[in-house]
Design goal:
- The chain is of the alpha/beta class and 245 residues long.
- It has one domain: Aldolase class I (TIM Barrel, Alpha-Beta Barrel), CATH 3.20.20.70.
- 40% of the residues lie in helices and 16% in strands.
- An eight-stranded parallel beta barrel has the order 1-2-3-4-5-6-7-8, surrounded by four helices.
- Helix 1 runs parallel beside helix 10, helix 5 packs parallel to helix 7 and helix 7 packs parallel to helix 8.
- The protein is globular.
- The protein binds phosphoenolpyruvate.
- This is Triosephosphate isomerase.
- Belongs to the triosephosphate isomerase family.
- It catalyses: D-glyceraldehyde 3-phosphate = dihydroxyacetone phosphate; L-erythrulose 1-phosphate = D-erythrulose 4-phosphate.
């Protein structure tokens, strides 16, 4: 049985005042079985921890090295030290803005696991790749090369985020979401066996809102969502959590 997960990615949004929204989410979302996670900017993780109640806290990236001369970067152990339970890796904005490859994402994943963090590994096709009928090839490649061999359902979550759906208001059909999620599930089961492959949670991400969440959560192999814009305000995020419960 996979525990449902509602994960919020605040991206580069939020100063200390934003923690009021986190507190409101924590106060109103504790009644269901779904796990709730907020990934604020790293500057807020420590303060967030003391105001998040049962809501888990995560980072949005970590360096592939455990420590060292990497000015401006953060290690997985640093995130863990200030209260993070999770880290998002390979978000399409990192793959684009910082030219992150799947090999680098895999290296970061190993470092995150070594520090005791759970990794949410993001994969997804661009619009031109979908239009060229390459979606499953891209997803298969990213899945194979972004995830280390010693994955387990306790430490890995995979987020399917079509790049063209992130922050655009465009959402794939439920048929398209189901096709990709079933494909990812089969890929994980083929590689890791049905026990481990069947226990990894699969999130859909890309313009999830209160108005479309229930429909998306009803799709096979969708175990929750990775939510950007609609996770910034409790009024938007709490109904998404409710749809999962
Ligand atoms: C995201 O950033 O992972 C995301 C899914 O953003 P949005 O919900 O705003 O599309």
């Amino acid at each position: 049985m996979r525990t449902k997960l509602a994960a919020g990615n605040w991206k580069m949004n939020g100063t200390m005042a934003a923690l009021d929204a986190l507190e409101a989410i924590a106060e109103t979302s504790v009644n269901g079985p779904a796990e709730v996670l907020i990934c604020p900017p790293a500057t807020l993780i420590h303060a967030a921890r003391s105001r998040s109640g049962t809501v888990a806290i995560g980072g949005q990236d970590c360096h592939a090295a455990a420590s060292g001369a990497h000015t401006g970067d953060l290690s997985a152990a640093m995130l863990k030290d200030v209260g993070a339970d999770y880290v998002i890796l390979g978000h399409s904005e990192r793959r684009t803005d910082h030219e992150e490859t799947s090999a680098l994402v895999q290296a970061k994943c190993r470092t995150a696991w070594a520090a005791g963090l759970k990794a949410i590994v993001c994969i997804g096709e661009t619009l031109s790749e979908r239009d060229a009928d390459k979606t499953l090839d891209i997803i298969g490649d990213q899945l194979a090369s972004s995830i280390p061999d010693d994955a387990t359902g306790d430490k890995l979550v995979v987020a399917y985020e079509p790049v063209w759906a992130i922050g655009t208001g465009k959402v794939p059909t439920t048929g398209q979401i189901g096709e990709v999620h079933d494909f990812i599930r089969r890929g994980l089961e083929d590689r890791f066996g049905t026990g481990i492959g069947g226990s990894v949670r699969l999130l859909y991400g890309g313009s999830v809102k209160a108005t479309n969440a229930a429909e998306i959560f009803a799709v096979s192999n969708v175990d929750g969502a990775l939510v950007g814009g609609a996770s910034l305000k409790a009024a938007d995020f709490v109904p998404i959590i409710a749809a999962l419960n």
